[in-house]
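Hi R.,

As promised, here are both runs. First protein below:
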Amino acid sequence: MTARAIFVGCAHRPEGNGDDDAAVRALADIGVATRWAVWDDPAEDVASADVVILRATWDYPLRRDEFLAWCASVPRLRNPFAAVRWNTDKSYLLDLERAGVPIVPTRLVHPGTVPEWPEGEFVLKPAVGAGSVGAARFAAGEHERAAEHLRSLHDRRRTALLQPYQAAVDSEGETALVFFGGQYSHAFTKGPMLTGAGLDGSGLYVAEKRGTTTPSVAWRALAEDTLDAAAAHLGLRRGDLLYARVDVVRTDAGTPALLELEVTEPSLGFGQADEAAALRFASAVRGVLA
């Protein structure tokens, strides 16, 4: 009997951005029929699927409560609801820091508060956000412009993250390490996204320039430690996470640090991976079904 999987998108990207096409084909090859559904479409019946996989729900930041209520109602959701609830607010970074994971230094700036601005370049971004939308980079001393951006976030009752900008991102970008079922699969690079890059046509994310890479041992070790810490914090096994993407950057001190951990709806870089990556994903899905 053919298993049934649903990939979940949003109204502006009902079938994602094309990156998951290889995964759909790989699943079909091993007996898993996949279709796409829009998460907030009341006509959709996702309860009948054998597994429901969040893939392109990129409109949730301004509707997080509604999105989480929907996720809580879905049986056989992947990743699990507890992981989605935790991961859709970037304050999770502080949980990982407390667990010993080196992160890009991060401060939360709640509505009604004003931070002490860093001396060098820095970044402000919404704590609930996706695709770098609402993130902005500021030069040293640009405190007035930063305060204006912060007010625009706070006026919408959004908590902000304040982080010092890591200069190596300009030349190296970010390294995204991808895991399926708790096992490392592949990595890819993402170019700087705060230097004038425009929004995708959907308006949901900043267009990325991607490339292939083989991460160093230190980057791999940090990604592994991050996944272990996240699973422990959530009371899960690593294998309970069907997919995870660990975004790492080089700090000004030359060491790797976690920028973000994505276990909700990350692009998984199949277009930059070897052909077997989609097969590894499909096998991880079969593991969930088993």
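And here is the second one, sequence first, then its structure tokens:
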Amino acid sequence: MNVKAILEDKGRAVETIGPDETLTVAINRLAEHRIGALVVTNGDRKVVGIVSERDIVCAMNKHGAAALEQSVRHAMTAKVNLCTENHTINQVMEIMTTGRFRHLPVVKNGQLDGIVSIGDVVKKRIEEVEREAEEIIHYIWAG
């Protein structure tokens, strides 16, 4: 099972934000869409960062309420781990676990093509395990 299977189920839409937007705008977008991260692009679908709830909390811890008027570029994670639709679910789980983050942008030809969350990965993995269990039961009873 790979990232392509996840994107085929959930779609490839990704909420993005520009690096010059304020953290207040980012917070409003996160709340509006009920998501935990926004991919930062310059409008060209090229990933330049990611800003998560954790990034915003850290900025507010450091700068207080003044952080809300800072640009996303000051709080975002600029060194973003990326994957492609060919990455396996196990590879993505390892990347997320090692990096201790919950969102992984998907790129194709250097441009943003989707995003997977830990929730997406766990859901797909559970479906895969359930399907395998059904196949084993069917094999045992059919044999």
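A quick note on the second one: The mean pLDDT is 94. Let me know what you think.

Best,
J.
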